Amino acid sequence: xxxxxxxxxxxxxxxxxxxxxxxxxxxxxxxxxxxxxxxxxxxxxxxxxxxxxxxxxxxxxxxxxxxxxxxxxxxxxxxxxxxxxxxxxxxxxxxxxxxxxxxxxxxxxxxxxxxxxxxxxxxxxxxxxxxxxxxxxxxxxxxxxxxxxxxxxxxxxxxxxxxxxxxxxxxxxxxxxxxxxxxxxxxxxxxxxxxxxxxxxxxxxxxxxxxxxxxxxxxxxxxxxxxxxxxxxxxxxxxxxxxxxxxxxxxxxxxxxxxxxxxxxxxxxxxxxxxxxxxxxxxxxxxxxxxxxxxxxxxxxxxxxxxxxxxxxxxxxxxxxxxxxxxxxxxxxxxxxxxxxxxxxxxxxxxxxxxxxxxxxxxxxxxxxxxxxxxxxxxxxxxxxxxxxxxxxxxxxxxxxxxxxxxxxxxxxxxxxxxxxxxxxxxxxxxxxxxxxxxxxxxxxxxxxxxxxxxxxxxxxxxxxxx
Length: 467
Hints:
The chain contains 13 helices and 15 strands. By secondary structure, it is α/β, with parallel strands linked by helices.
């Protein structure tokens, strides 16, 4: 994508989103099954990948998403609540959760919930004509499956005194949507977390559906909606988007809390059948999902809010306001443009940064926020990485992302493996009060030969950025 005319590159470079260059401007069905062992860091990644079976994989266009590294199978269900008023917007989620081992009744979830809407959305984000998107993006993306299954029963957490699972809410970056980070959130769920991934409708998603897929909210470029091209107008526009996003995160927390209380709100996605193989017309996944199995199974006291890029900024603002009383925050390559780093945060933060998404103003904001955070900020830099690496895109399209200089120099699956280890090491710290060295130990346990800067080394790296 070209750089918006309203965004001077030297003053505040924009984030990539998932598809744009940052420098360019942009088992069984028994629901009573219990967990066999507690969440733990597993250094191994299964050799099986969720590869699509299509002409794309035959010709090497596709890579594949990694199997999760945790102990538990993972399933998904979509949830959308209606909007009641401007202060209480509806919210669209994909909920990832530890599940009973999936039987043949619960196939892998497709990466695109609705193939045409989202494939055309990605094409539009890349400024492709709709006709081209229909001809190429739809057949390219629609066969891709994720490591998670559809609607398998929730696993009961036998390692918790009350059988509850900790919970995370995830916010995507510009040009993302609720499944763009399937690898990351699925891995978290495999380690024993219920993760609610939000699809934002502030104009930042590649496309967002609404009203049970009866309507869409398209991606908005600032130049499409702003008549004033000044820096002040652009900053206000981004801050207004953050406010919408924060309301949606708040709504997501409220939905999860209501589900845990046994009073789930209206789900507009209940009548939308999930994408499953056409031959499985009598599939159990077509049956209405029973949310009563989640009642008193979610530990809201361990809420973690996470996000990538603009979603990282969103999670920071949520933490500054202590919405939902989060226990910790995770920011993946946060875009700090619309964030006030002088506002302190009183819960631990993990800030995982890539090597190339750095310029002085952003780096200074990350450092200032880190120094204003008590008790702990875990800063890290994964060498050989680019801004899109926390998403699924480099793993799915490794050759294309490298050719377009939108992926890191290292193997994307190895990068994800390191990211998973850092995240689980931090969550052990945040939830169990362990030492920061747990993060280093988790990285070393992966066996991936990758330089990772932690704490003081990461601070020195950011301090040396000059432009």
